[in-house]
């Protein structure tokens, strides 16, 4: 029936595969491949213990298009779910085209030597996927992913137009380490050290990284400092919500995180250009990743909650004037760990990846070509968030953020 191949056995891949196994009516045959096969085997063991479902595992270097094509052909999945790193996106898209499989990911393609966070490389695959009669769904994680679905749900049910949009991503979790990142450290640090960009009056406005700071009182977490930064869904939201006057993305960071990051940046450890050490070329940020805790290892010790949502202001659908709505999910690290063996940052990404895959496999979302989350009906996805561990709430606020 619905055969799926997941590539990438990190925290996000682990959650997605566990949740797929918990929905056997949709995912009848699950395959997991990654660079280090022992990580796939460990996930398969945990899935078997928790759900009784058997998962097939494989070693693959997804940078190798020919080998990945061969693997996809030999398994014959309807869908390949790419939960490796953004560097592999184009190679896996090429392999899907060659082998005739649909494609889904949670992060846009990134060249290794530049932190860009732009969609144009993947949007350029539009004609190829269309010609092949296949669908590629981009950015089906939480942010990007659910944050765009939230905005489109508000646009469908509450607001005729969205004039102002703020996306607030708070991780109130404490992992007990002096410094660690909650998902892949290399991608996380590239994102945080890049200049901030927000959408205003038809263009992106750039400001220095971590230059704009505000405090916000997050339900379930309490007051936290959040920093304006660039995040890739701003690009697709600006494209598919042309009426947006302003769209901003905020993420919380504790003082200790900022302090460590500042020192690492000042000493050059976050550089992504190669340096020669003892005759060998190394990329400082990749070396740093090797000495930092693996995000997956933080699961057992992380306590607290994540709170991610959208605050949107615009003309109300019912003609009652301008209204502001806040739509969000709160996720508990310990509950996420108890269910899948992974903390909430992996959980809040892996569950939407599974739901996006379910949308494609059940035909609730279909099409030929490359799609962003904004282009598809938010309702069935929102329904599954409620039943699959990421329930959401919506409330009316007095007005937009005062800053
Ligand atoms: P991890 O680093 O924990 O896992 C990545 C996995 O991909 C590892 O198992 C790694 O293998 C594997 N991998 C890396 N390179 C290759 C390759 N060439 N071929 C095959 N497998 C490879 O990352 P996360 O699980 O935290 O994140 C996964 C993805 O999710 C990333 O793209 C990240 O950007 C995205 N993400 C999206 C979010 C969202 O809300 N949209 C939020 C958080 C993450 P190995 O074990 O050998 O290193």
Automatic annotation (TrEMBL):
Q: Which UniProt keywords are listed?
A: Oxidoreductase
Gene3D superfamilies per record: Dihydrodipicolinate Reductase, domain 2, NAD(P)-binding Rossmann-like Domain
Entries under InterPro entries matching the protein = NAD(P)-bd_dom_sf, Sacchrp_dh-like_C, Sacchrp_dh_NADP-bd
Query: What are the recorded GO MF terms, alphabetically?
Result: saccharopine dehydrogenase (NAD+, L-lysine-forming) activity
Sequence ranges assigned to domain Saccharopine dehydrogenase-like C-terminal in this UniProt record:
141-390
PANTHER family registered for this protein in UniProt: CARBOXYNORSPERMIDINE SYNTHASE (PTHR43796)
Organism (species): Novosphingobium chloroacetimidivorans
| Name of the protein described by the UniProt record | Saccharopine dehydrogenase (NAD+, L-lysine-forming)
UniProt cross-references to Pfam families, sorted A to Z: Sacchrp_dh_C, Sacchrp_dh_NADP
């Amino acid at each position: 029936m619905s055969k799926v191949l997941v590539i990438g056995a990190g925290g996000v891949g682990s959650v997605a595969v566990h949740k797929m196994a918990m929905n056997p009516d949709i995912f009848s045959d699950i395959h997991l491949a990654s660079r280090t096969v022992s990580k796939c085997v460990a996930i398969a063991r945990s899935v078997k213990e928790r759900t009784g479902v058997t998962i097939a595992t494989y070693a693959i270097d997804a940078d190798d298009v020919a080998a990945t094509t061969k693997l996809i052909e030999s398994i014959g999945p309807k869908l390949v779910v790419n939960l490796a790193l953004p560097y592999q996106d184009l190679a896996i898209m090429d392999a899907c085209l060659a082998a005739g499989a649909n494609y889904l990911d949670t992060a846009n393609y990134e060249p290794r030597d530049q932190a860009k966070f732009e969609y144009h490389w993947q949007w350029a695959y539009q004609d190829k996927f269309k010609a092949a009669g296949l669908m590629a769904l981009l950015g089906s994680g939480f942010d990007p992913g659910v944050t765009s679905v939230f905005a489109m749900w508000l646009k469908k049910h509450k607001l005729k137009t969205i004039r102002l949009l703020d996306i607030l991503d708070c991780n109130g979790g404490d992992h007990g380490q002096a410094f660690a990142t909650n998902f892949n450290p290399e991608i996380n640090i590239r994102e945080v050290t890049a200049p901030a960009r927000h959408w205003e009056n038809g263009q992106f406005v750039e400001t220095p990284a971590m230059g704009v700071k505000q405090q916000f009182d997050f339900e379930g977490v309490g007051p936290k400092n959040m920093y304006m930064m660039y995040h890739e869904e701003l690009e697709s939201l600006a494209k598919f919500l042309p009426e947006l006057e302003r769209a901003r993305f905020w993420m919380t960071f504790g003082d200790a995180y900022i302090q460590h990051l500042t020192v690492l940046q000042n000493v050059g450890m976050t550089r992504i250009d190669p340096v020669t050490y003892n005759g060998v070329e190394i990329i400082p940020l990749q070396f740093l990743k090797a000495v930092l805790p693996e995000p997956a290892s933080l699961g057992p010790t992380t306590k607290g909650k994540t709170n991610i949502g959208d605050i949107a202001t615009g003309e109300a659908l019912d003609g009652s004037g301008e209204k502001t709505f806040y739509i969000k999910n709160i996720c508990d690290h310990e509950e996420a760990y108890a269910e899948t063996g992974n903390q909430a940052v992996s959980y809040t990404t892996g569950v939407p990846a599974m739901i996006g895959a379910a949308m494609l496999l059940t035909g609730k979302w279909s099409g030929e070509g490359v799609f962003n989350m904004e282009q598809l009906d938010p309702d069935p996805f929102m329904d599954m968030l409620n039943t699959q561990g990421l329930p959401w709430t919506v409330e009316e606020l007095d007005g937009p953020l005062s800053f």
